């Protein structure tokens, strides 16, 4: 069996084309979508991610603001910045890049972001709306996974979806989204995690296996049903002396071992990764559209 490769770059480019049309329509009404990112400290991975967000904003013709704050920023200073962005009419959506330095209270920060500008979809109000199937925004990575499934022509209605992982960022919202009525959903969903007994016996039942557990090459062929669709959300850096950098990225799925057993699979890198920023941009555009409707 030759698996179909589901590539995030191809799917994201299609979505970016649609977003550019929506951005042009907003600009014709005098509205330029604005996205701000608050970066506290010098975390290297966060800096790379924030830079990529800014570059994509600019390529789409959106307003991009990066607020850099030192690692020693106090809770009060950060909360004041959140309040400022909540009240800035030129910023339609914003996020505070996580993780924050350990002395800062992430939950307090997330709760302070206006739900109408919460493009990361971390605020409890937006999380709840996802659960009941009436979202303002969808969390970026799960939304990206769902778009990859939809745009690859993979049927989900009545299918058994197994999600490996129960994080608030991917696992839980992914399960909630696949349960809803509608396109790219209507699935029977099982969530498995580190405390699940005989986990492989459950993953082998999956028509669609979505893996977000953060363990390199965790999923092996004996855990996958013949002909299943496998979506690998994991990004893990492992040592590789043969690589110029001495390391390389792999997913949570043993790609080389699994790919000949399944009907479709996402590679790492090149799979889900590009979709996260893409869907963040989609949320920012949606926030601008909602704001323009309220004017």
Q: What does this entry show, briefly?
A:
The chain has helices spanning 8-28, 44-60, 75-86, 106-112, 124-132, 140-151, 171-179, 199-203, 255-258, 273-294; strands at 4-5, 34-40, 63-69, 93-96, 160-164, 188-192, 208-211, 229-232, 236-239, 247-250, 264-265. It has 295 residues and is an alpha/beta fold.
List its traits.
single chain, 295 residues, alpha/beta, Rossmann fold, 2 domains, six-stranded parallel beta sheet, three-stranded parallel beta sheet, 10 helices, 11 strands, globular
Describe this structure in words.
Helix 1 (8-28) runs parallel beside helix 10 (273-294), helix 6 (140-151) packs across helix 7 (171-179) and helix 6 (140-151) crosses helix 10. Helix 7 (171-179) links the parallel strand 5 and strand 6. This protein has 10 helices and 11 strands. The protein has 2 domains: 29-114, Leucine Dehydrogenase, chain A, domain 1 (Rossmann fold, 3-Layer(aba) Sandwich), CATH 3.40.50.10860; 140-275, Rossmann fold (3-Layer(aba) Sandwich). The strands form 3 sheets. It has a 6-stranded parallel beta sheet. The chain has helices at 8-28, 44-60, 75-86, 106-112, 124-132, 140-151, 171-179, 199-203, 255-258, 273-294, and strands spanning 4-5, 34-40, 63-69, 93-96, 160-164, 188-192, 208-211, 229-232, 236-239, 247-250, 264-265. The chain is α/β, with parallel strands linked by helices and 295 residues long. 40% of the residues lie in helices and 16% in strands.
């Amino acid at each position: 069996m030759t698996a179909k490769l589901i590539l995030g770059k191809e799917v994201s480019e299609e979505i970016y084309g649609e977003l550019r049309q929506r951005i042009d329509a907003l600009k014709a009404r005098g509205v330029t979508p604005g996205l701000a990112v608050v970066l506290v400290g010098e975390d290297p991975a966060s800096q790379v991610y924030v830079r990529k967000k800014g570059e994509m904003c600019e390529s789409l013709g959106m307003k991009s603001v990066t607020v850099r704050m030192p690692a020693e920023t106090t809770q009060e200073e950060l909360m004041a910045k959140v309040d400022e962005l909540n009240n800035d009419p030129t910023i339609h959506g914003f996020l505070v890049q996580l993780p924050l330095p350990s002395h800062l209270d992430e939950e307090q920060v997330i709760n302070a972001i206006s739900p109408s500008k919460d493009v990361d979809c971390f605020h409890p109000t937006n999380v709840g709306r996802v659960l009941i199937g009436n979202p303002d925004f969808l969390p970026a990575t799960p939304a990206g996974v769902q778009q990859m499934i939809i745009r690859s022509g993979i049927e989900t209605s009545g299918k058994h979806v197994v999600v490996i992982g129960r994080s608030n960022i991917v696992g839980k919202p992914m399960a909630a989204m696949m349960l809803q009525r509608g396109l790219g959903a209507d699935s029977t969903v099982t969530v498995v995690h580190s405390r699940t007994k005989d986990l492989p016996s459950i993953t082998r039942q999956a028509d669609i296996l979505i893996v977000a557990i953060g363990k390199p090459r965790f999923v092996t062929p004996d855990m996958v049903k013949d002909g299943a669709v496998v979506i690998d959300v994991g990004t893990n850096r492992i040592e590789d002396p043969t690589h110029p950098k001495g390391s390389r990225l792999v997913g949570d799925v043993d790609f080389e071992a699994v790919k000949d057993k399944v009907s479709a699979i996402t590679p790492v890198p090149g799979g889900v990764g590009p979709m996260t920023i893409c869907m963040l941009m989609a949320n920012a555009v949606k926030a601008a559209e909602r704001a323009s409707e309220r004017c």
